[in-house]
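STRUCTURE:
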């Protein structure tokens, strides 16, 4: 059993230990020490990284009490080595994990929901709760979580005697055999946990919700704490400042400016559609005396192709409406009395396309082709 120094002092960043075993792995080396301050991955929290005896610690895992360090180089068995924890990563993990306890504990107290899934990811902390929450509910919990941070409450970890544990109300995702380590924040949360935590809630910095989505019968909430929250807010502020500059608006008025742009865009779209229909009518009039009518409608909305082809086919053998696209044409082919499916097949075979539909109206796409070549092929059908 490896002595778990991180349980005794989560603020420890440097320690000495003896190497008990070192085995070559497919990737790196598996090093076992008599004691360690490197936290192994588990309980939703990532492993510590750092340096051990001059080699890099890339990962750490717990195998039934024996903690294995994956390193990028070997260490002599029996040698005393110094371990140095990556303090930035450890503090980040502690801030995220303690912030999650605060948030999940408050959800449990307010709504009775359990946190049934928790993970400290590289971008955010995700929590899955087994009950629904409205946006208003989430905002309320967020505020209470930050009030708990501002109160700078002690975060206490202990392994209570069995009798005391049996009388204690605490959160736990699964039954635990043997000793149970309890992490407690007075008035906020009591939870079984093996992870590392800040000594006081004030060190969490802040708790910021960045995502809420429905998940199964409950809700998945994403948060950021401490440094991650600050970096996220700075990035958001940079984005808002740049957006405000482009919109010639004040940062807190960008939503109104964007709404004005949307309204202008919608009005322009309606105008463009009107002009496109006028141009189509002009082109349709130009070929009104032809048995096979082909019109390029480069300003016609794609949703109008079928309707336009139907109107163009009135009094004609068949009518084709083409709309340009990056790699060729979109088309709608129509006829009132003729089955256009053979002509559609001929078009697709000749010009590298695909399409289909009922006998009086087909749609599809064609590759790059000259309009006169397309018209000539239809006239031969």
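SEQUENCE:
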């Amino acid at each position: 059993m490896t002595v778990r120094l991180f349980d005794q002092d989560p603020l420890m960043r440097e320690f000495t230990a003896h190497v008990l075993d070192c085995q070559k792995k497919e990737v790196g080396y598996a090093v076992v020490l008599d004691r360690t301050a490197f936290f192994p991955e588990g309980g939703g929290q990532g492993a510590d990284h750092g340096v051990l005896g001059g080699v890099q610690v890339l990962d750490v895992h717990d195998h039934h009490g024996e903690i294995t360090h994956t390193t990028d180089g070997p260490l002599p068995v029996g040698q005393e080595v110094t371990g140095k924890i990556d303090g930035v990563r450890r503090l980040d993990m502690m801030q995220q994990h303690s912030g999650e306890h605060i948030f999940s504990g408050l959800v449990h107290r307010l709504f009775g929901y359990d946190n049934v899934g928790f993970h400290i990811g590289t971008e955010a902390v995700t929590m899955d709760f087994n009950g629904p929450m409205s946006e208003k509910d989430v905002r309320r919990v967020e505020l209470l979580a930050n009030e708990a941070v501002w109160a700078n409450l002690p975060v206490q970890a202990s392994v209570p005697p069995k009798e005391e544990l049996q009388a204690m109300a605490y959160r736990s995702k699964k039954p635990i055999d043997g000793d149970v380590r309890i992490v407690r924040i007075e008035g906020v949360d009591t939870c079984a946990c093996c992870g590392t935590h800040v000594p006081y809630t004030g060190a969490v910095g802040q708790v910021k919700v960045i995502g809420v989505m429905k998940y199964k019968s409950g809700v998945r909430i994403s948060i950021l704490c401490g440094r991650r929250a600050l970096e996220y807010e700075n990035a958001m502020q940079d984005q808002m400042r740049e957006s405000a500059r482009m919109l010639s608006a004040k940062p807190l008025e960008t939503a109104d400016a964007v709404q004005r742009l949307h309204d202008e865009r919608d009005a322009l779209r309606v105008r463009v559609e009107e002009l496109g229909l006028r141009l189509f009518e002009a082109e349709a009039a130009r070929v009104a005396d032809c048995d096979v009518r082909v019109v390029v409608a480069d300003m016609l909305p794609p949703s109008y192709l079928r309707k336009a082809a139907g109107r163009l086919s009135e009094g004609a053998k068949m009518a084709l409406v083409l709309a340009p696209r990056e790699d060729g044409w979109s088309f709608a082919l129509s006829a009132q009395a003729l089955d256009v499916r053979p002509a559609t097949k001929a078009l697709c075979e000749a010009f590298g396309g695909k399409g289909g539909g009922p006998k009086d109206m087909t749609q599809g796409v064609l590759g790059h082709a000259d309009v006169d070549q397309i018209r000539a092929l239809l006239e031969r059908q």
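REMARK: The mean pLDDT is 94.
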